[in-house]
Amino acid sequence: MTRGASDDAATVVGPAARTTAPPGGDGPREGAPRLVARVAARAARWWARFSPAGLVGALVLFAAALGPSLMPRSPVYQGAIAGVCAAIGYAVGTFAGWGARRIGLRAPWPPARRVLVHRVTAALALLVVAAALLVDADWQARSRGLLDMGPAAPARPLQVVALAVALGLLLVLLARALRATALAVARLAGRLLPPVPARLVAVVVVGVAAYLVLDGTVVAGLRHVLTTTYAALDEETFPGDEQPTDPERSGSPASLAAWDSLGREGRRFVAGGPDVDELARFSAATGLEREVREPVRVYAGLDTDADLDQVAALVVAELDRTDAWDRSVLVVTTTTGTGWVDPASAAAVELLWGGDTAVAAMQYSYLPSWVSFVGDRATPPAAGRALFEAVYARWSQLPPDDRPALYPSGISLGSFGSQGAFASLSDVAARTSGAVWAGTPGFTPLWSELTSDRDAGSREVYPVLDGGRTVRWGRTLPDDSASLADGDAEWRHPRVVYLQHPSDGVTWWSPDLVLDRPDWLREPRGADVLPDVSWFPVATFFRVVIDLFVAGEAPPGHGHTFVGEYADAWAAVAPPPGWTPTATALLHTALDAPQDTSVADR
Question: What is the pTM of this model?
Answer without folding.
Answer: 0.87
